[in-house]
Amino acid sequence: MKAQSLMAAAFASTLIVSGSVSAQDRSDWPESFTVGTASQGGTYFAYGSGWANFVAENLGVSGGAEITGGPMQNMALVHTGDLKFGLTTLGPARESIDGNSPLAPGMKMDNVCAMFPMYQTPFSVTALADSGIESISDIPDGAKIGFGPAGSTSDTYFPKMMDTLGVEYERRNGSWADLGTQLQDGLIDVVAFAAGIPIPAVSQLEVQTDVNIIGLTDAEAEKIINSFPVSEFIIPASTYKSLEEDSRVVSMWNFSIANCDVSEDFVYEMTKLTMENNDKMVGIHKAAKSSVPENYSKNNVLPWHPGAARWFNENGFKIEDSQIK
């Protein structure tokens, strides 16, 4: 009887969040769904797997996350329909739509639609405190720098940023968790992270050793902003115990994406659930503080999914017909 009561309470809780979803016609809804994320140890995996579970629990559809190579690969997987949902950054999204993805040169990935804004991805550098590296200019020639998984946002843009800043380096790739371990073991000198904050791998490093989280000078930030599709971003000192003051870096926006052919009603309900329950999303990951409707305007790259656009338009956030797939 106790177990039955617990199940009933859980079901009632689900109905409170999902409202009248269960009364709708679900004939065109998928039986299950998978969200393309990125490597373990990064924000995409934590955010994406938590969001998938949140949707599954409240909409009554089996769902989960899949580890991928990150934004660029997610664009390809969602475009082809191998995955129906994913997470991407607007820079890699633009390159993929234009047919400039290194994963499929010449293929214009135009069957990918935006669902909702996630958060900004700061580009930040971490080194061990005993390395003596406290600024970009301190990075020695030939330093081994980990840029994340091959094809990720960091791997796509951070090497070019380092080139722009005159840094000479040896390139290394791997999951964020693996690169964090390599940094701690002295196998690499620097990790160039591009992930929502706090980055799980950095938080884990702080527990085990002393690290320097390196920002940009005024001149460095200006040079990068003038050369890449990024904007200035401030990492609050409260984000990491290693920071004694706010750190200036640059960032790029992330959006959740769906294959444009996925059920309009299903995407509508996913968007509604996410946008109307920000407290639950922040409970999944602190970066979701930016996962609010007002940030829909940050999307200047992807067409909107009709289901997502319907929710935004119903709630006073105007998306023109020309912006909808």
Describe this structure in words.
It holds the Pfam family NMT1_3. Keywords: Signal. This is C4-dicarboxylate ABC transporter substrate-binding protein. Residues 1-23 form the signal peptide. The protein is of the alpha/beta class and 325 residues long. The protein folds into two domains: 32-119 and 254-323, 3-Layer(aba) Sandwich (D-Maltodextrin-Binding Protein, domain 2), CATH 3.40.190; 121-252, D-Maltodextrin-Binding Protein, domain 2 (3-Layer(aba) Sandwich), CATH 3.40.190. It is built from eleven helices and ten strands. Strands 1, 2, 3, 4, 5, 6, 7, 8, 9 and 10 form a ten-stranded mixed sheet that branches. Strand 1 (32-36), helix 2 (43-59) and strand 2 form a beta-alpha-beta unit. Helix 2 (43-59) packs across helix 9, helix 6 (176-184) runs parallel beside helix 7 (200-208) and helix 9 (264-275) crosses helix 11 (306-314). It is globular, with a radius of gyration of 20 Å. Mean pLDDT is 92; it is low at 1-16.
